[in-house]
Amino acid sequence: MKEIMISINPPFSKQIINGEKPMEFRKKVLNIMKDKDNFGKIKIYIYETKNKDGCGKVIGEAIMYNLFNVGYLDERIKPDSYLYTDDRYQCIRNLYIRWCINNNILPNMNEGWFKSKKFMKYIKTIGWSDNFNFAIGLNHVKQYEEPFSLGSFINTSGIPMKYPPQNMCQCFKR
After folding, report:
1. 3-state class of 152 per DSSP?
2. Stretch 68-90: mean pLDDT, rounded?
3. d(Cα 152, Cα 2) in Å, to the nearest integer?
4. d(CA 148, CA 68)
5. What are the φ and ψ backbone dihedral angles of 140, each rounded to 5 degrees?
6. Are 153 and 173 in contact (CB under 8 A)?
């Protein structure tokens, strides 16, 4: 299994851990994440940044089950292209269904998310905007009883980590 550490600011890190946020939104991702053969085979370590009263440690892990290319910032994808609309549609549909399940609401695929003010408010609280290209689908989220320091991980060169990644990086747990 491949291992990636992602730096996430609170409150988003806490929303992922408590199951409220099933996806992490990013402008860029590592190339190994774009390979569909790796879906379900990438462990994501959740590093909670020190911003906004975060602990500055790895607080949990999850498995990346999918990567949606929503293409908000990708100039190569035209707004009317199939790839652009289908991946974004599948992403928001997935969010809507999971939101309905978490709120004990029967999903209404005829009306759907575009008429639900509560759902639109929810996606804003989990960080949905037009300022990202990718939505990383996360499942099997596990919170550590005791958060790990960065020194518990090594980078791909075998050197213990001293600093958190700016965005994300491959790593290994020691």
Report:
1. helix
2. 65
3. 16
4. 29
5. 50, 45
6. yes
